[in-house]
Amino acid sequence: MLARQEEALKDFEDLAGKLPWSDPLKVWEVNTCFKKKKTKHKKMSVNSNKKKIVNGQGDKLDERDDGGFVNSALDSRILDYYENPAIKEEISTLVGDDLASSKTETDEHSKEETEPQVLKFRVTCNRAGEKHCFTSNEAARDFGGAVQDHFKWKADMTNFDVEVLLNIHDNEMVVGIALTEESLHRRNITHFGPTTLRSTLAYGMLRLCAPQPNDIIVDPMCGTGAIPIEGATEWSNCYHIAGDNSPLAVKRTANNISSLLTKNQVQEGKLCWGMPIDAVQWDSCNLPLRTGSVDIIVTDMPFGKRMGSKKRNWNLYPACLQEMSRVCRPGTGIENGNIYP
Ligand SMILES: C[S@@+](CC[C@H](N)C(=O)[O-])C[C@H]1O[C@@H](n2cnc3c(N)ncnc32)[C@H](O)[C@@H]1O
Fold first, then answer.
1. Residue 301 alpha carbon to ligand 1 centre in Å
2. pLDDT band at residue 68, thresholds of 50, 70 and 90?
3. If DSSP codes are grouped into helix, strand and coil, which group holds residue 233?
4. Atom of ligand 1 nearest to the CA of 193
5. For residue range 141-162, what is the model confidence (pLDDT) as tens digits?
6. Is the same domain home to 11 and 145?
7. How many domains, in total, are found in the chain?
8. Considering the domain boundaries, does residue 23 fall inside one?
9. 75 C-alpha to ligand 1 centroid (Å)
10. pTM of the model
11. Among 19, 37, 296, 307, which is 20 to 30 Å from 273 by CA?
12. What pLDDT, on the 0 to 100 scale, is given for residue 179?
């Protein structure tokens, strides 16, 4: 299973070298054709089973991948869904009154039959940084206007063919086209905490450590368990231990594990015997683990912004790093942490 995944990743790496990246629309076309073949989806833009977005004056409603609606004003509940939001991050999808279509779907379909096909698009803006004099919604709206003028595409929030991504981080801007219909960064997590790490990041951190079969992998400050849960899902031939000193965090991790087990059971239609993971409450500065008993530690320590404080980190970091070095077996694994001084 792991070998197959690695092969698939290798194929993707090779593919990356062959795609016409200087022409993003070509890449999108290739991807769409591939997905159509692969999944036999009728249409990439079939979102018709989702509710229509209310686009009234000043309403900034955004439809997330889970089909739910969230207010795109800076809402702490949204922030929790994203990578440790020590940096402010704001996400909006273009909803300019002048851009979004108010036509009914029946109108759309009858028009489509008679007129040459015009691509439908929406812009989703991800903004992180303190010094912007615009919101992500304003950026999405203005950028959407420019896209519309340039390509003569039609803005459509729900029935779009192309999702244009506008990622703004401080004074950097990256424009892209979404190649997956659904973001994968929330996979496996149902119970979120104040600093839940994106599953995609957790996967990358684990992969950098090159886990080997039977490795014991520990996250001593697991929060909601994003890292060890990703580990137990993708490296199921290893044993994962998730620990945290907060009882609430341990409970969230346990809930996430149990939701995932139920989901797998429903999807596969058979009893799922469990996952190679345990969740425990402990102090990472005094781990109940034998010296030299752990192969890999992957963790995401508190930055001292949303969680803990920078002052406390001066004592916490040396104490827990020393304890981590005690429990690590020399010569196995590659230590990889997410440390922001
Ligand atoms: C940045 S959060 C980890 C977030 C986690 N990666 C997730 O996806 O939810 C840091 C975690 O360290 C925990 N923590 C802080 N001090 C600790 C200690 N001494 N022992 C164990 N855990 C600790 C906090 O309770 C918090 O859950």
1. 6
2. very low
3. helix
4. 9
5. 999 999 999 989 999 988 898 8
6. yes
7. 2
8. yes
9. 22
10. 0.65
11. 296
12. 80
